[in-house]
């Protein structure tokens, strides 16, 4: 539909009036970024002036940025842990926020091995919803005709618990999908999903995935975009199809749903959707039974224009695999968000993954940026192109000058709002899905497994490093171990080494174990024993490439292909974790 030219936007011609409004909002916020930030901080400080946290810093009613920055420290989660624990335990006094904390969002970042609990308030849901509402208007500028079909999105809810004080604790997306904002969203021709709400909201991940895939297959010719939140999730869906296409085809042929799908609301809604279709069942069998799955996405969903998945940051490791399965479809990374706060969106979503930049929306929170290697935080509009910064947020929900842990590089500006390339998350060594393992967690896991090894056969781990192996779906952690086996000592048995794998998994944080147990999004950990002298060769290699011999440290994680190849060529045996580690939704008490 052609739109009145008076609706045009500097970002491009909007697809409809609703889009025009959204694009105008982006323009207004980004043009006035500094004023928006100034007013937003003043509003937060006015509103939360009587909270226990702000009173501690004697702002004396000041709501300006200079006073705020001179009196409040920049903090991490650990600094807030006592306050968060009190709220979790049921203290309803205004500790961090004048508005009641409505729930905790369980971040994929961890503290003492457990997920971080991010306090949030009811109205933050509106702010998140607002950011979501900007995504399609931007996408419609680049991909026309998205109102002529549907999106096949694999979306999931995860298990939730209650804190001792009775507040829900769940991931931010689970909170969003379960909210009325999502469940009762008004019909929007640009945002029609093949997955019914019943399938998305089913907590059993198998039943949810099965029914979402089935709906995607039934409606395959309507599908214009295929997505999941993160690349790892979309690959998990492809793996699921590899494992279950035959059952799915049987359902399509017979028009009756597999008996393993027992969720009554899914069965009810599928009874309207699923009709016998011999022709489609044959087509699916024919496409899926071949060994070659290259381009499977476009073979099954031939009208797909792009993949909607985040492939920036740790997810970049999946780009080649997704290219393989999609026959090189563009990958759109639309937004940048976290449990603490939704930050911003990509105004050029069809850009190459390596060139993706996110524009932080100044209305979402008050943002500060600590230059890498520096200490003085600067304002949103004062960051410099080419420089790297650590992101600090002050939110309506009561986080004040809180370090998110993300490192961003400024690539440019849209009006006066900077655009950022996501560089990395601080201190993350290994990540496959939403798990994030840092160096000290890995060290502890190796230590625990080494104790087992020593006890059982007197052998020590002389050196180790790790690698996130994403050539398998799901990907898995690989630990390269060089063992110290003295003359006359026997090599540890395969059985002992497999138990060392499990011991390490038991020692890793709860997000890792949840990915292994509940989500099946991380595969069994593997130990690859390398022959003696391998780590010396690794050092020789690093030195030949210019590393200083005095300062050389064994890297605790490797991803540079020649190094991985060197390690793999020295492997004498490989051992996988034989069982799932322990995990329950309940948190350990501190
Ligand atoms: P969580 O709080 O568990 O939702 O995790 C949020 C974190 O995920 C962020 O702080 C980032 O480190 C990462 N993240 C979120 N969105 C993106 C993105 N578009 N690109 C890269 N990393 C992202």
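^ Assign residues to that structure.
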């Amino acid at each position: 539909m052609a739109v009145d030219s008076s609706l045009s936007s500097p970002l491009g011609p909007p697809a409809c009036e609703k889009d025009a409004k959204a694009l105008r909002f982006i323009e207004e916020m980004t043009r006035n970024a500094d004023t928006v930030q100034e007013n937003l901080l003043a509003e937060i400080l006015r509103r939360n002036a009587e909270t226990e946290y702000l009173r501690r810093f004697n702002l004396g009613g000041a709501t300006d940025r200079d006073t705020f920055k001179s009196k409040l420290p920049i903090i991490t989660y650990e600094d807030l842990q006592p306050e968060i624990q009190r709220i979790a335990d049921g203290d309803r006094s205004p500790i961090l926020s004048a508005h009641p904390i409505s729930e905790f969002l369980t971040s994929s970042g961890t503290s003492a091995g457990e997920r971080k609990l991010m306090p949030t308030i009811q109205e933050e849901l509106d702010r998140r919803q607002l950011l979501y509402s900007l995504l399609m208007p931007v996408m419609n500028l680049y991909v026309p005709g998205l109102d002529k079909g549907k999106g096949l999105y694999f979306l999931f809810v995860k298990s939730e618990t209650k804190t001792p004080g009775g507040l829900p604790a769940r991931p931010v997306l689970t909170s969003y999908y379960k909210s009325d904002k999502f469940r009762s969203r008004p019909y929007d021709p640009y945002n029609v999903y093949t997955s019914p709400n019943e399938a998305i909201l089913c907590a059993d991940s198998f039943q949810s995935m099965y029914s979402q895939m089935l709906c995607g297959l039934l409606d395959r010719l309507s599908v214009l975009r295929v997505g999941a939140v993160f690349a790892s999730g979309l690959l998990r869906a492809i793996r699921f199809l590899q494992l279950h296409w035959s059952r799915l085809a049987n359902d399509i042929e017979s028009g009756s749903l597999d008996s393993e799908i027992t969720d009554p609301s899914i069965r009810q809604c599928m009874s309207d959707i699923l009709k016998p279709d011999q022709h489609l069942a044959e087509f699916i069998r024919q496409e899926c039974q071949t060994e070659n799955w290259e381009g499977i996405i476009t073979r099954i969903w031939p009208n797909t224009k792009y993949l909607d998945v985040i492939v920036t940051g740790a997810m970049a490791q999946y780009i080649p695999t997704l290219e393989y399965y999609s026959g090189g479809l563009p990958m759109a990374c639309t937004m940048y968000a976290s449990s603490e706060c939704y930050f911003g969106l990509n105004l050029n979503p069809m850009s190459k993954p390596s060139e993706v930049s996110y524009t932080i929306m100044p209305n979402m929170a008050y943002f500060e940026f600590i230059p890498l290697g520096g200490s003085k935080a600067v304002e949103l509009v004062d960051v410099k192109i080419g420089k790297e910064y650590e992101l600090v947020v002050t939110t309506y929900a009561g986080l004040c000058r809180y370090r998110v842990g993300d490192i961003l590089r400024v690539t440019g500006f849209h009006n006066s709002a900077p655009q950022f390339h996501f560089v990395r998350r601080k201190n993350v060594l290994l990540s496959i899905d939403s798990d994030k393992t840092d160096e000290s967690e890995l060290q502890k896991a190796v230590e625990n497994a080494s104790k087992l090894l020593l006890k059982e056969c007197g052998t020590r781990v002389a050196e180790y490093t790790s690698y996130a192996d994403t050539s398998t779906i799901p990907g898995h952690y690989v630990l390269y171990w060089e063992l110290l086996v003295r003359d006359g000592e026997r090599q540890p048995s395969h059985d002992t080494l497999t138990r060392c794998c499990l011991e390490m998994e038991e020692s890793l944080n709860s997000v890792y174990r949840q990915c292994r147990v509940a989500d099946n999004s991380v595969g069994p950990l593997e130990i690859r024993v390398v022959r003696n002298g391998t780590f010396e060769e690794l050092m020789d290699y690093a030195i030949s490439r210019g590393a200083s011999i005095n300062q050389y440290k064994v890297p605790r994680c490797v991803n540079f292909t020649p190094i991985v190849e060197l390690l793999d060529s020295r492997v004498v045996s490989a051992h996988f974790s034989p069982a799932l580690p322990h995990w329950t939704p309940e948190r350990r008490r501190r």
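The mean pLDDT is 95.
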